[in-house]
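Inputs:
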Amino acid sequence: MLELYEQVLEIEQRLIPTGLHVFGRVPEGRGRADLLRMVASFDRPESGVRSLPTLIADQMETSATTEGGSPEFEARLRHEEKVDALTREAVGRFLEEGTDSAARWLEAEAHVAAAESRPVLDLLAQVCDHLQENCELDSFARALRGEYIEPGPGADIVQNPSVLPTGRNTHAVNPYAVPSSLAFERAERVVNLLLARHLDEQGRYPRALALVLWGLDNIKTGGEGVAQALWLLGVRPLRDAMNRVTDVEPIPLERLGRPRIDVVMTVSGIFRDLFAATTLLLDRAVRCVAELDEPAELNFVRRNVLAQSEADGCSFDEARLRVFSNAPGSYGTNVNFLVSDSRWEGEDTLGDLFVTRKCFAYGRDSAGRALEGREARAAMGRALSRVEATYQNIDSFEIGITDVDHYFEYLGGVSKAVEKFAEARPAIYLSDSLSRESKVRTLTETVRLETRAKTLNPKWYEGMLRHGFRGVAEIETRVTNTFGWSATADAVDGWVYDEVAQTYVLDEVMLRRLSELNPHSARALVGRLLEAEGRGYWPADGATVGRLRDAYADLEDRLEGVA
Ligand code: BEZ
Ligand code: MG
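Outputs:
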């Protein structure tokens, strides 16, 4: 019962975007309060800011005992709820009456001294000021006139409030700063959670893991994904005299307390372009681990590389290729296009396309020559054949795995490819490093969470519908992206499609709204549900299928102007 309650709380507390960003418009009302609450929920040691929930929790009596049930669990839930309520109220006071009043309230109600709450409240005041200074339209017009636009960092507002004010010329990061010390520290916890989860469910560590790395994500997090790859391999970054990450060194096995995990990395074209030095570093890390003189049962990289070169008679150099991307100048897997256009027959096609697009190796050979994207289909197949789990880090509040087609094209695509080469379905995991407490979930759990928190949440879809034509297109896109997880990983429960059909098609009022605002997307949505049923991903009953077919036919007529 309490676990159920905890899950409900997780869905309730999940931050979701309620509508699209309107260029030049500043968030107001509840949207602004929610944003500030999230900003206030992170400790920012680099600027001496402790989060509001931490400050409040520190002052609260946590050892409260309860009777019966599971006292510790219950006490913890109560505690979290209380912290959340006090945080909400404090942010509300801040918005209504300003910093001083919020500080006094925190002192009186939560026993947080004013001197303690000052840094986080000052940060909120600064965020508010900067939000007000929205110069997006003005900068856009100035850019069109060829004028100078002041630069600013590109990131998530919650993770890095200094992206404000918006409307500046977004710049990325120095690739040699990746991974940052903070990212490396945070990554250890996530990797431990990931491996503990796998160990718990499968009874052993994965002998190899396929990892997806994107460019923008690693910019936003200072390289958390890169750091996770390094932790899995069991190496730490080394910085040169200019503080640039240029090499790695092994972390001793005693410190690691577990085997080094083999990782097959698929990096996006954007990552390859932005992080050329990091791409080489990752390859170097694999070589370094493969060359360590350690027992095979504690060094899966070495074990796999030796086994591969023996079995296939290939060179050590060839057997240790682990960093793959597109051919130079090419981007993406195209798996998403195949799925959204319904132009595929067997699921194998999707995994094959992934490998065709992504089998280009990066790094250096043993003579130090750069590979520069040499086609290496056999090497990729060989590396994937030992993979038992696939994984990607999610780092954005705004973009989840069903918001865009890129998660299923990458993580779904690689999982499908593993299924073929390893002849077994991998376990698929995602971590979200965006909450204070990072979490690792299976793909199926993540699809369920996003379905509940967004797709079926009136707060989400009404927010979208306020955008009219575009909003309906967003709803349809989300359904197609959910379907993408059926096609690539069979990770969508039947109830998801049942509820989507119920909410958007079988509810006549809703269907009418969608059809009037955007009949093209409404038809595509109904068509996608029928496709899910037709391809065997959704055991829908005959009556439901009949009603979907009727709705589809009506929309066709409407679009042809016959209705
Ligand atoms: C990237 O940042 O690497 C990326 C962005 C969008 C889609 C795929 C990859
Ligand atoms: Mg795109």
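Remarks. The chain has 26 helices and twelve strands. The CA atoms of residues 43 and 51 lie 5 Å apart.
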